[in-house]
Amino acid sequence: MNRYYHQQFLFDVRFLFLISIALLIFPVERTFFIIPFVSLFGAVLLSFHAHYLIFSRNFSQYLEKEINKLTNKKIMIAHELENTYFFPIQDKKIVVAGFGKSFSWFGFVTLFITLYGVGYFIYGVVNINFEDSVIYTVLLITLSAVTLLTGFWWFVLGVGEDRLKAIYEK
Hints:
single chain; mainly alpha; 170 residues
């Protein structure tokens, strides 16, 4: 289940990285106006991948626990390995980055990519003359606010994971 997720995720990360570098190496007249939208698009796309990973990890953990219960044996342990090596799926985290004892290389990479995107966004924004376009400014502020609020609602408040728990804890 996660194989294709990782394959697409890594392709998208590389593609977005190349676009971000290309915009800096081969600038066009409105490069700085494009950069924040590339960054926002990347944030939404990569968060979509993360939300699927969270779903699939929860689903596979549920299946493995049920199989172990049915067989009265601990034969399915992938979820335990993933919870230890990557991040505990049930712990509080920011998207897929656990903190404290659950912090891992996976969390570091998640935060690294996130900070790269935030830095790229800021770099574009500080180089824009917003007086050139009121419509652009309103659109960028609105889209940024909606993206941040929706991400906070879904990931940080845990709405998505709470929906899953409501099903598999029945």
